[in-house]
Design brief:
Distance between the termini: 13 Å
Structural class: alpha+beta
Number of strands: 3
Largest sheet: 3 strands, mixed
Order of helices and strands: EHHEEH
Strand order of the largest sheet: 1-2-3
Length: about 50
Amino acid sequence: MNSTTLVTYSARDAKTRFGEVLDEALGRPVGITRHERLTAYVVSKRDFESLR
């Protein structure tokens, strides 16, 4: 995974801008926050498979 600065979206924004989140995740992991706490990451298929 190549990441410099983690891009984050609130869960609400990620829901309404899902396509943008997916596009961003092709280049680097994207953090998803809920109640201002980082709760999940969206990563590309390639990055996910490299973790396995």
